[in-house]
Structures are given as structure tokens and as C-alpha cells.
């Protein structure tokens, strides 16, 4: 997955926005943005925050929006595994199985 290059600029902006939301969540949670440290519970918490109502600290996004966010993150993680596996820890070294 290349974020820029062969895509329309509108698509690039959307991907940037979607991945940026996860990075912001992760940075606010841990104080850093090391991709190698992302585990399943982080993604689950992020999705819960996106779905959650604003009065409970969530974002209140519609299910379709949250699904798009999750798909963008999933595609990015797959891209990392193929293009930059050195940025990811081996499964046996991750914080959360």
C-alpha cells in the first residue's frame, strides 16, 4: 500500500486522516507512536473510542465510518508486514498476544 503516488489526492487525504486518528489515539494513550508496539487491545480500545458516545468520552462515529477507519489501519499494518517488517516486533516479543 502506497499512501501517495498512484492514488487520487482525495483518497490520500482520507487515508492520512484515518491513520492520523489512530496515531493520535496511540500517542495520547502511551506518549509515543512506535508502530512496533501496537497490539490487539490497542486497536480494540481505539475502535471502542470511535464507536463510543461523546458524553462517555467517545467520538460517536457511525459504524460505516469506524469500519473505514479499521480497514485503513488493517491495510497499513499489512503493508508494514510486507514493506517494512523490521518496524514490527516478532509476535513472541509483543506486549499482548
From TrEMBL:
Gene3D superfamilies: 1.10.150.130. Keywords: DNA-binding. InterPro entries: Integrase_recombinase_N (IPR010998). This is Core-binding (CB) domain-containing protein. It comes from the Bacteria.
Amino acid at each position: 500500500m502506497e499512501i501517495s503516488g498512484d492514488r487520487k489526492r482525495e483518497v490520500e487525504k482520507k487515508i492520512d486522516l484515518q491513520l492520523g486518528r489512530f496515531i493520535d489515539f496511540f500517542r495520547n494513550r502511551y506518549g509515543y507512536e512506535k508502530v512496533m508496539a501496537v497490539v490487539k487491545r490497542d486497536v480494540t480500545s481505539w475502535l471502542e473510542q470511535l464507536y463510543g458516545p461523546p458524553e462517555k468520552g467517545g467520538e460517536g462515529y457511525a459504524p460505516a465510518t469506524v469500519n473505514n477507519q479499521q480497514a485503513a489501519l488493517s491495510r497499513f499494518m499489512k503493508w508494514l508486514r510486507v514493506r517494512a517488517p523490521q518496524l514490527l516486533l516478532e509476535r513472541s516479543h509483543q506486549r499482548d498476544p
